[in-house]
Amino acid sequence: MSLARRPFLAALAFAALAAPALAHDGVHVENAFARFVPGARTGAVYMTIENHAKVEDRLVSVSTDAGAKAEIHRSAQGADGVMTMDALPDGLAIAPGAIAELKSGGDHIMVMDLNRHPKPGDSIEVTLTFSHAGTVKLSVPVRK
Ligand SMILES: [Cu+2]
Fold this sequence. Notes:
Layout: H1 2-18, E1 27-35, E2 43-51, E3 57-64, E4 67-77, E5 83-87, E6 92-94, E7 99-102, E8 108-114, E9 123-130, E10 134-143
Parallel strand pairs: 1-10
Antiparallel strand pairs: 1-2, 2-7, 2-8, 3-6, 3-9, 4-5, 4-8, 9-10
Bound molecules: copper (II) ion.
């Protein structure tokens, strides 16, 4: 009995060691940066998120050490031409194989209730939580 279980345990240990190498089985984040306009009460985080999985994923929540609150926002231009933005209550869906661009004037992560004013050259910690890929922690550089 104990002999029969051995290969199973060995396989588990191997899977645990191999897991970090499977970087492309899930989401892949690139070009992340944050922007904090001097004097502003909020900041924004932009990045490119690729879903390498074969199922839809969803960015459901974000947290950061730079502020008490972070929301996933979508910017849109109203009929009057004025830009507005709204929180996405259900998060940001990313289809299998799709790329979500979080950029100025579009979808973005908004940092609120700032506890400091990060400057260009600083970095902030950002934790992304996905429905499928789980938690992704990033150190995000602050740019002008
Ligand atoms: Cu916003």
